[in-house]
Amino acid sequence: MLHELGTAVDGMRVVTPRRWEELKKAVIAFAVALADGNGRRREDQAVAEQLAVGKLLVGSFFQTCAEVPRPQEAKARR
């Protein structure tokens, strides 16, 4: 969500608290998969596969972990 004084620019994406939690889970799963891979963390192809599985590649990262910002709702005046 944008700050009430903020301005979104074309193509802007933000990581919301909900998406942040999803990102943390994906990064942890990535690390666990590589750690359980009997030394596969040293293999470029194995690392690339795990990044793709977790949707952590550059091309999909912001589509998966970020969203278009929403303007903040106007606060009710008292």
Keywords for this entry:
single chain, 78 residues, mainly alpha, 3 helices, 0% strand, disordered C terminus
Given as residue ranges, the uncertain stretches (5+ residues, pLDDT < 50) are 74-78
| Category from helices, strands and their pairing | mainly alpha
User: Helical stretch count?
Assistant: 3
The averaged pLDDT comes out at 78
Distance between the termini: 23 Å
Number of strands: 0
Q: What overall form do the CA principal axes indicate? A: elongated
Oligomeric state as shown: single chain
Helical amount: 40-55%
The main sheet comes to:
none
- Please compute the radius of gyration using only Cα atoms: 17 Å
SSE order, one letter for each helix or strand = HHH
Strand content: under 5%
Describe the structure.
The structure is a single chain. By secondary structure, this protein is mainly alpha-helical. 47% of the residues lie in helices and 0% in strands. It has helices at 17-35, 44-53, 58-65. The longest helix has 19 residues, at 17-35. It is elongated. Residues 74-78 have low confidence and may be disordered.
Walk me through the topology.
Layout: H1 17-35, H2 44-53, H3 58-65
Describe the structure in brief.
With 78 residues, this protein is mainly α. It has helices at residues 17-35, 44-53, 58-65.
